[in-house]
Specification:
Its EC number is 2.7.11.1. GO terms for molecular function: ATP binding; protein serine kinase activity; protein serine/threonine kinase activity. It comes from Citrus clementina (Clementine). It is a single-pass type I membrane protein. Among the domains are: 134 residues, Agglutinin, subunit A (Orthogonal Prism); 125 residues, Agglutinin, subunit A (Orthogonal Prism), CATH 2.90.10; 128 residues, Hepatocyte Growth Factor (3-Layer(bba) Sandwich), CATH 3.50.4; 172 residues, Transferase(Phosphotransferase) domain 1 (Transferase(Phosphotransferase), domain 1, Orthogonal Bundle). It has 13 helices and 43 strands. The N terminus and C terminus are likely disordered. The protein starts with 14 loop residues before the first helix and ends with a helix.
Amino acid sequence: MGFPCLFVLLILAPTVAWSQAWSQGIPRLTRGNSLAVEKENDFLVSPNGTFSSGFYKVGTNAYCYSIWFTNSVNRTVVWMANRDRPVNGKRSKLTLQRNGNLALTDKDSSVVWSTNTFTDEGVQAQLLETGNLVLVNEANTTIWKSFDSPTDTLLPSQLLTKNTTLVSMRSPGTYLSGFYNLKFDDNNILDLIFNGPLISSIYWPNSAFTVFLNGRTPYNSSRRAYVNASGLFRSSDTFKFNASDYGVGPKRRLTLDYDGILRLYSFDEPTRLWKISWLPAGLDNCTVHGLCGPNGICVNRPRQKTCICPNGFRRNDPSDWIKGCSPLFNLSCDRNELDFMELPNTDYYGYDLVTYGIGISLQECRNRCLSDCKCKGFGYSTDGQGECFPKGNLLNGHNMPGKYVSMHIKIPRGKINSSAELEMARINYLNCSAAAVVLGGDNANGEKPTKNRYMKYLISLAGSFAVIETVFISLGWWYVFRRHVHEELANLGCIVLALGFKRFTYAELKRATRNFKQEVGKGGFGSVFRGVLDDERVVAVKRLEGVLQGDAEFWAEVSIIGRINHRNLVKLQGFCAENEHKLLVYEYVENGSLDKLLFNDPGTASILQWDQRYNIAVGTAKGLSYLHEECLEWVLHCDVKPQNILLDDQFEPKVADFGLSKLFKERHDTKFSRVRGTRGYLAPEWMMNLKIDAKADVYSYGIVLLELLTGKSASDYLSASVSDSSYCNHLVQWVAKQMEQEGLEKIIDPRLNDVYDREKLDRMVKVALLCVAENRDTRPPMSKVVKLLTAHDHESSQDESISD
């Protein structure tokens, strides 16, 4: 069983390589000359090589003309000319035209960006040691500079003025303009602003305080701010700060990051990484507006955030939390048909209705909201002040332990259960293996997560569990809670609920499995046994072998698996951690794994029919899409294969075995270890030791699709030599050859006796070949795979509804 993974490792390139790259750049661009996107050595360098300026790849065959720190890991970009209009990777150019205009043109010669400078004088483009790209004339007068049009970063000696704005990037790895701005407002105050698709609001400085209480003044209308090389920041509204490592030495940058937080970074020369040397006081992940969109709730964790939808709401866009959540119900104005769902320690900031009040009862606050059709819910203070905050919109939701407000969301009566444990949601880093994998954001310092940091987090988590447990014992409700909470909360998706799944004793599981007698499966991580619990539930108990972690760390990490819930994923129901005994308890899936039915002998009666194979393909794609894009934002499986796809009594697929590689992270990894996947299903990037992302799962899924179509196992097409780097493509090559020589029908499993849907067959073949493309950038994401496989199905159902 492979494990979903969510963790960050930076791949360090040798300094020598960067030095060589610098030496190959050019110091200036003169009139009539160009920099071509295809030529790797066509870029400008600053006099001492601190900065480079050239074409920077931002996507598949997409480039932006950029400035970056030459020696930083992965080239930290500080400016882009065309961040919202990338150019093609072929025939695009940056040209200093003879009329003095610096223009960026796409492959069709259309102008994407230019400086709009026109002069008959001699002009040249230079990249200064400050990181400023300038056009200078023969008199050495600057006629244009990049410092006048910043993107998301302010460099030392660069001014932020009334005419300039820092705009964040959209998300990690997405350089499009984001939704957060740093700019001076009309009152001469430097603000951080959420400028979203629907609303705009200031979230820093805290608008609950006056300008003067925030230490600002509106009287200086010059509107100028800067940071210098020593790490000193000064603004005309009197806002100021010093870097924690104040003084001349490290290179610095002030960046408005994609999460809406302004950070000052200092460059560490030995590691070539950035360290945070200043953060705005009082601004944490969930204080930022708009992070989770309308109706969404930001759950605050140290140096990171989790976005969730309240129970009864659905995420609008799996790839973009800014779009928030939508209710799965309609509200009437009849108060007799309405109720409220309570969310403790939760509030939606702003958008209070005029029916706000203080010193009133909870019942009165409830009645005010019920009587107002515009009221979507109300917040009520729990500090004894009796403050009532009816809400016209549910925006800027956040949940924090110790927040003295409970949110009550208006819902149809009797339709939705309470979601009282939202504060337990959290994010964890998950490893696929010891290989270099890049899947998500860095920690707050831009560094790789360390074991000490992770252990501190685990200790904090364990402490939280202990506090919760103590409270329940003191109230006398521990027994009741333990017996009933799992059943009530098991369907809350990816939210970790403190005791949302059971911790079994070893004696319980030994009794349930009759001393581990009925083995139903065996994998690289251990054996699986059928068991019957005391409440008569049938379960699958996996006895893990070789886990090196202690009980507390194991407990914390299996809780990650326990919160994942989707109809096409096997559900973890509990675990056991007693010294050397480490076991996982899963739901029991009746028909076993796909390989046992798919690769049966031709004479076997139980053959998977066409409709079953198609439904398995679609269901598996939906499960993987959920892992990749909906659950905890980025989760990989890392070992997709038929053995890890289980079939229930209705032949509905359930993807299994995500989660275990994290528990074995201390084991020595080999080139084709069990942690890193299974031969025959590994994407080409595994063999080339490249970073692994979601497209590796897409490749493995493509191989499974080919197996469903052909009835042939990828393991039958392996070469004898592990050193043969192309072995995993042999089934793909066989399919391609058969289709070319004999036609599509020749690849179909003969046991189907030519009974299949031709249109669905075409779709599955096309999707499979897209998924197993050598170039991972051309493989579709799993959400797109689902759409491609079911597109015609949706159209047909729509046509039927129209005809009805």
